[in-house]
Amino acid sequence: MIPFKMELTPEEKAILEGKQGETLQKVMASVVLYGEVFGAKRLVPLDGPVHLVTSFGIPLLKPVFEMMDELIASGLRTEKPFTVDPRPLDYNNVRCNPLEKVVFSIMYGKQKEYEQQLQQVGLKDDNAFSCTCYLPQVGNVPAKGDILAWAESSAVVYANSVLGARSNRNSGIIELFCGLIGKAPEFGLLTDEGRKAKWLVEVKTSRLPNAQVLGSAIGMKVVEDVPYITGLDQFLGRELTTATRDYLKDMGAASASNGAVGLYHVENLTPEAVEQGRNLLTEDYQTYVIDDQEIERVIRSYPLMWKQPGAKPKLCFIGCPHLSLQQLESWSDAIMGALAKAGRKKVAIPTILCAAPDVVAAFAKDRTRYDQLRATGTRLTSICALMYMNNPLCAKKPVITNSNKLRTYTTAKFLLDDEILNRIVHG
């Protein structure tokens, strides 16, 4: 057995000695080694299900598929049913030409087999594919203080910040291993010290800044550190309403993708900030002021990756991370209202609204609104727009989005919500 420095319980040591099988031994060893790299002194029990970032069947991930087969052959399953990031494809709602489909069939050729493997090691159900697993319709909703092992960056930052749970930004597959043993290494954001803020971010704008841009500004400045944000409560109030949670969801996702933020505190709003206030700041914290000029500077800094800067957009993605039910309803009303005002019946640009399968199902219960939205040419899907854009043929298209995460990882052009709506209606 490899000599470990971590303080392990007799049960954990027994697993490492192979007394519960070679496969579980390798799982435990991987988790312990991972924890020791970051200075963890022990493992702590998980309070909730894991959430996996690896949801796609890319044939190049052959070692992952072989590993999954070994887990299945050994009869290993996670202690609690888990959720996973979105699927990559939905030809019914996100249309592709024959050549694009050929590329996708190569890129995600193992999707069906991989999903079967996920089911056998503990996947919650066939609808458990979303980056917003924490929404009530999806059901993987941790409570304040819960210890987790998640890997999707936008989900981690939401769980930590808005819900007050505790999870590190774990590497893919490690979170699955943690779910199999029911424990995670205690370091970083699982500790009180690791949740202290090294930055005081003062929002001094004249109006509520766009969530995606604010998150982008914060992420690029603080990178992986924890920020303590002041000034937002003057716009958002001091209650975590559904609208406020949606704002913080998008802000956090942008901070996690434009930087590597895994936790933020918002004064008078997020759980730990309400309880501890500025005591969360470290003694040597730095200050970053965000005013109207800084917001404009950040927007101007975004590069345009299109080959033809003046090209007419061919596709619009809204919902990265996935939209909440309220956001889906809001965008539906906004699109149909703007079309009616312009005397138009159809969107000028194919528009895709992305949300979790169970959120789409909840929206579709209002059949009249659902049918009216589809009649405009707008489509609803549960795929990951980023995975769609990973197709090199799709990446060549002039795609617009209101998502800073999608902008960061692809060639999509970022536009503010009002600009997006204007393009959807007028082209």
TrEMBL record:
Keywords: Iron, Lyase
Domain (Phosphomevalonate dehydratase large subunit-like) ranges: 6-412
GO molecular function, one term: lyase activity
Keyword Lyase: yes
Protein name: DUF521 domain-containing protein
Pfam families: AcnX
